[in-house]
Amino acid sequence: MNDTVTGKALLDDADRALVDGVLARSRRALAKAITLVESTRADHQVRAQAVLEALLPHTGRSIRVGISGAPGAGKSTFIEALGLHLIGRSHKVAVLAVDPSSSLSGGSILGDKTRMERLSRSHDAFIRPSPSGGSLGGVAEKTREALLVCEAAGFDVIIVETVGVGQSETAVAGMVDVFVLLQLPNAGDELQGMKKGIVELADIVVINKADIDPTAAQFACHQMRNALSLLRSSSLHWRPPVVTVSALRHEGMDALWNEVERYRKAMADSGELEARRRRQAVDWMWTLIDSGLRLHFRRHPEVRRHLDEIHRAVERGAMTPAAAAYRLLGYLHEK
Ligand code: GDP
After folding, report:
1. Dihedral sign of CA atoms 328, 329, 333, 335 in order
2. What's the pLDDT at 11?
């Protein structure tokens, strides 16, 4: 339902209560609102958009931190240590995840109850596993919206975890203010990251497990600084620092968070933080338009009628890809 004057979606009483519940930091309302946002049902999507629109004026006041690293790098141990550190300093911390493989594997990062056990027991923390939305786009879309819900509920630090493989890093970097990359002190690890282009996304690099071999960690730190100095910095006002920590022993969290704060200040002072968020919002709009158009295309009756046959013709070489695309797109104009 839309208000015809403002174009805004209208809330029914139950959803108004849900919005009020989120704003009052009710955990139940928060979980319910995220479930609504994650639902793929068309009627739920309409309600979710109305709820999000009502929450929007209350969003944007957190620092959004992306955390990535290969499996085993220590992400969940690190997020628990950092989360507890921040809660000890009166922050409220929400942890979300983007793991497109979760629908295939049946599990999900953050899904395992034993992960971040202490953090999950804290009243000042909220932990939500990755939605199982199928495609990366679907998963990222829902996580981005869940992030807004958490902000409206007053969480002032939002951590978005992602697995250190595939394209999910780029999706997460596109929704956070600062992207933190976790690395192990093994020689060669940073080069693996370089290959995948993940190091280029990092605003801060963390060498974890420094307790195992402090000398190796220092060496890795030095190597990483050298590697980073060869990359073109994405900002004139920031060169990504390298910090060593031990997530297991909860060491180095202060130094790491100081870097996050320093980063935020540098970006805010130069206007880049706002610019980054504006760019992310516009990119996000276009992503949604692209996926909406694709869906509209696939659902069109004429496209559905001819798609398989044209698909096969292209495979056989009986039709050029361009002719096929023009033919299929042309069906959109037919009633
Ligand atoms: P994830 O797969 O990236 O989430 O990694 P986990 O947090 O599950 O950690 C993988 C393993 O590394 C676990 O056995 C952790 O206890 C261990 N680990 C994580 N951080 C540290 C650390 O700082 N020092 C040591 N010695 N082990 C760690």
Report:
1. positive
2. 84
